[in-house]
Design goal:
Layout lengths: L1 H30 L13 E3 L7 E8 L3 E8 L6 E5 L19 E7 L29 E10 L2 E8 L5 E7 L5 E8 L5
Antiparallel strand pairs: 1-4, 2-3, 3-9, 4-5, 5-7, 6-7, 8-9
């Protein structure tokens, strides 16, 4: 009888410990840890100044924790304003949201032209054209060229939802520079 009582008491104590451990785990996941260490946030990001180095290329890439859009320039560029909201074509003011796939829209304004000194286009995109195939991307849904006017170039980047993003300015390759937009796949684990 004593053994049975002792085993019952031990089982109650162990059940309490297991339940307590489960609730601390639940509390940790309720507060959430940063997804892949990402702490970027979704507020607008702005930096740099106007440049005359023209846009040379736009490309995309997939990573384990985020999707990426790279804007490459033929010279030094560090100016951008990127945030969630409606994107308008440069010079015309036409909203791009009806033409851009995704649950949320990132407005990308690059402080550099998409044309050279002779006003010839330096990228093969027409205003409103989709510039990337994003089939099987986790977060990116669309990249649409909004045009270039008075030294500014605009893109609408459609994403699955309003998610954290960061912007990097990188030198190279060679004399080129890049403005890189990374959009996380999710907020928290």
């Amino acid at each position: 009888m004593r053994i049975r009582s002792a085993l019952t008491a031990l089982a109650v104590v162990l059940a309490g410990l297991v339940a307590g451990a489960g609730s601390s785990t639940a509390a940790a996941s309720t507060t959430g840890s940063a997804y892949c260490g990402i702490t970027w946030g979704s507020a607008e990001k702005t930096a740099g100044s106007l440049s005359d180095a023209p846009l040379a290329d736009v490309r995309t890439g997939q990573h384990d924790c985020y999707d990426r859009v790279v804007f490459e320039f033929a010279g030094p560029v560090d100016g951008y304003a990127i945030g969630y909201g409606e994107t308008w074509t440069e010079g015309e003011g036409l909203a791009l949201s009806p033409y851009t796939a995704g649950g949320a829209l990132l407005r990308v304004s690059l402080r550099a032209p998409a044309y050279d000194a002779a006003h010839q286009g330096t990228v093969p995109y027409a205003v409103g054209e989709h510039v990337a195939n994003l089939l099987r991307y986790s977060t990116l849904r669309d990249v649409v060229f909004g045009g270039s006017f008075e030294g500014y170039s605009t893109f609408a980047v459609g994403v699955r939802a309003r998610l954290p993003f960061r912007v990097l300015v990188l030198a190279g390759p060679g004399t080129h520079s890049r403005v890189v937009l990374d959009v996380a796949h999710q907020w928290q684990e």
